[in-house]
Amino acid sequence: MRLSDADTTAQLNGWVRRRRDHGGVIFVDLRDRTGITQVVFDPQIDEKAHALADSVRSEFVLNVSGTVRERAPGELLFNADAAFQAELVNGTPLSTEFRSLFSDLDTKYTLSDDVKVNVREPDKRWLLTDIENNRTYDIEREADSLSIYQGTVNPELATGEIEVAVDSLNILNTAKTPPFPVEDDIEVAEDIRMRYRFVDLRRPEMQKTLEMRHKAALTARNYMNEQGFLEIETPILMNSTPEGARDVLVPSRYYPGKFYALPQSPQQFKQILMMSGVDRYFQIARCFRDEDTRADRQLEFTQLDIEMSFAGVDDVLEITEGLMKRIFEEAGDIPVQTPFLRLPYYESMARFGNDKPDTRFGMELTDLSDVMADCDFQVFTRALSSGGQVKGIAVPGGADFSRKDIEDLTEFVATYRAKGLAWVKVTSDDQPESKYSSGIVKFFKTEQLETAQERMGAKPGDIMFFVADRPKVVADALGSLRLHLGRKLNMIDENRYNFLWIVDYPLFEWNEEANRYEPFHHLFTGATEETLPLLDTDPGRVQSQHYDLVCNGSEICSGSVRIHRWDVQQKIFDILKIKPEDIKNRFGYFIDALEYGTPPHAGIAPGLDRIVMLMRNEENIREVIAFPKSQQGLCPLTHAPSTVTEAQLEELSIRVDIDI
RNA sequence: GGGCUCGUGGCGCAGUUUGGUUUAGCGCGCCUGCCUGUCACGCAGGAGGUCGCGGGUUCAAGUCCCGUCGGGCCCGCCA
């Protein structure tokens, strides 16, 4: 409802956000999904409604009807010379003389610099809004002067220019005092919010998230439909596979001792759909992984699952880019430039220490192994001689870090197995000998530090951090340190969205302990045409046709071109040393299908939760799920999982072997 | 499986390090009364906690010790 609705009658349903009882007149802020409207109970309009409104409390559910009216001017503050009318044009700064009329009255009326003028009736009425001080003034032209009234418009409300004068109130329900106020920016522990999620979700920002999530899914459906994709449901109860994450299991009543598994993703079914002649499939699919959770990981989550036949890498990337653009622009009002940058996996690892880089800031990792090869610092040389590396990052302004700061950061990298964090501060001193400050400077030739400084791009006032260790540890430690400091030092522009593809992944990873190769992603990931011959000679160098889409340090899509030829699949199984009987038991149906004319196909799975997190700028996945589970996998509302009756267990032939 | 951290009226927090003037304090909210233009309304008065739980040390425990439960972040795990 807006000013244009004035003088119409209206009926409103909603919850009471706040009640302001002035004895004679009662104001109630009534909230529904669309926002807040002020409703007024005036005994002169309806005595019964006013009397009833006396009992109204926060979060009561009301139905009111009345007249929409423009908010009338308040108390007359002063009269001013009619000549000031010339200033009442938006964009024209108010004169000092005019301003002083306000401040002379009372300091609380002193106008800020941020004052807006709205002409309501040309040459007759104006609304003056002091945005900074959150005050309004009504100005009316009299015969030969201007009357300035205290305004009753609330510039913070979209409906702030109007109110509903109630002539009939119906209290649809009462409510206990809510455990926390139903408004944005509250400071309440998350478990309290979760326990009262039905109250929490009433808050405007939560409503906004729910709506944005809905729009994202709707946009995805529309887009995929336009692109010729069919939405097909795949089973929720399926076979357990020992690969990858732990399955969520469901016992079978018909087959004692046997279990269904909930899908970790519809991977195999969507590939079978390709074999079934559905050349373009998608699904908004719930996926389940029984692993420990994190801030961005939940036991169950939602993917926009996509698969297409006769398609290669470029086809999938192009469709996905279009999808992302549509979702972010239509659901999130965030402009997106396509195509996205493609970054090879090895380059991402080298520069950022991980394959989901946040590229909104610099502070990239720099390899210094060659420079440090002949230094006297044994921590470095020992790491290098045992096949490790020395890398560093330069932290802007880090020369100010205290000993305690550095100690804390050392502790931070220790969680990633780094045994230490070497540091050298770059001072503004010009002399090469005294330019670098640190306990370890003596172990290096000045030229070594100078080369390091130059490569890292460190400036006077910066600190250089070094980690020397196995490549994995160096990458983990420095990559995480980079992100940690980037956040802490406010180097990240929250309004930017940096999309990029990570490509050219290896197909296999060597497992030291097991002394064999393991798939880098999964068993059905295809290899590039060029590196396919290496399968026989040097499997470690085979490149996969896998791709990840990353945005602001978050992996939001993952996919690949799949293997569609039986002979290639066979070779993969050989390299991975999977026994033929295992293949038959675990993937028999799948292998079977592969031999009946499988088209080349490829797919991807954008994570809906993470997309909404990005668009809402949320760090926690629970914020974008209506009813999330706690970190321990408990449902704060229903307290699932729960025990079941003996009778239920008996039907399932299950005996529970713990004391409850 | 491991590390860190939090737990004090309905909510947010102080007090815990150095046990004892705290009958456990503050803000918000709540309740009652007054108030016809507020929008974080105002004014006056009031109710409400035994400090997550269990055990121990002590003359004395919110405060120290042990255990346990719950929330969160991270490593492992997970793509």
Structural summary, described in words:
- The radius of gyration is 33 Å and the shape is globular.
- The mean pLDDT is 93.
- The chain has 660 residues and is α+β, with helices and mostly antiparallel strands.
- The chain starts with 8 loop residues before the first strand and ends in a 9-residue tail after the last helix.
- It is built from 18 helices and 27 strands.
- The strands form 6 sheets. Strands 11-14-15-27-26-25-22-16 form an 8-stranded mixed sheet, sandwiched between helices. A 5-stranded mixed barrel has the order 1-2-3-10-4.
- Strand 23 (508-511) and strand 24 form a beta hairpin.
- The protein binds one RNA strand of 79 nucleotides through strand 1, strand 2, strand 3 and helix 3.
Low confidence ranges: none
| Secondary-structure content class | alpha+beta
Strand order across the largest sheet: 11-14-15-27-26-25-22-16
Gap from first CA to last CA = 56 Å
Shape: globular
Proportion of residues in extended strands: 25-35%
Number of strands: 27
**What Rg is obtained from the alpha carbons, in whole angstroms?**
33 Å
Total of DSSP H or I helical runs spanning 4+ residues: 18
Helix content: 25-40%
The average pLDDT score comes to: 93
Main sheet record: 8 strands, mixed
